[in-house]
Design brief:
Blueprint: E1 2-7, H1 10-21, E2 29-33, H2 40-51, E3 65-68, E4 81-86, H3 93-98, H4 101-104, E5 108-113, E6 126-132, E7 152-159
Parallel strand pairs: 2-5, 2-6, 4-5
Antiparallel strand pairs: 1-7, 3-4, 6-7
Helix pairs in contact: 1-2
Length: 176
């Protein structure tokens, strides 16, 4: 099962991340794929807001992985921790293994940017999310300040039995 949506800008991408958080639970793996500036971190910011986690969700490029614990909700309950990983600088499966992501996988929602080809073995059930910016494609280094502008096309592909009866959030469907 997959859903493809068009999101007009960064705020719509964050809003879609919040909607996606509504179907996520502890133990879920989300693998994000897309060019530089496609909106991977922006989508993760929305997921973090939807999960109600502590701390600013920012790209963990140099840190590799950040853990965002949940804050207490008005009813006193807490959602899962968000583990946000950037696999861009990883050079081998040994480096992925050294992150020990499987140790926290059951208690957290784990979102891995640039994770395609690296982390699928962590979970048979996962969401594979591809983000594209069709107008202008990837951003040049001097365009990163304008990262909020521009449409994104997001495709969410559900893999595994966990997602069999889960309705993925939809937005305006992509024609074609």
């Amino acid at each position: 099962m997959s859903v493809t949506v068009r999101l007009p800008d960064a705020e719509a991408t964050r809003a879609y991340g919040r909607a996606l958080a509504d179907v996520l639970r502890a133990g879920d793996l989300v693998v994000l794929t897309g060019d530089l500036g496609a909106g991977k971190t922006t989508l993760t910011q929305g997921i973090g807001a939807g999960l109600q986690v502590r701390g600013q969700v920012a790209s963990p490029t140099f840190i590799i992985a950040r853990e965002h614990p949940p804050v207490a909700r008005p009813d006193g309950s807490r959602g899962p921790t968000l583990v946000h990983v950037d696999a861009y600088r990883l050079g081998s499966l040994d480096e992925v293994d050294a992150l020990d992501l499987d140790a926290s996988l059951d208690e957290a929602v784990t979102v891995v940017e640039w994770g395609e080809g690296w982390v699928e073995s962590l979970a048979q059930d996962r969401l594979e999310v591809t983000l594209q910016r069709p107008r202008g494609g990837a951003l040049a280094d001097d365009d990163l300040d304008d990262a909020a502008a521009g449409e994104r096309v997001v495709t969410v592909r559900a893999v595994g039995a966990r997602w069999a009866d889960v309705a993925l959030p939809d937005a305006e469907p992509v024609a074609g």
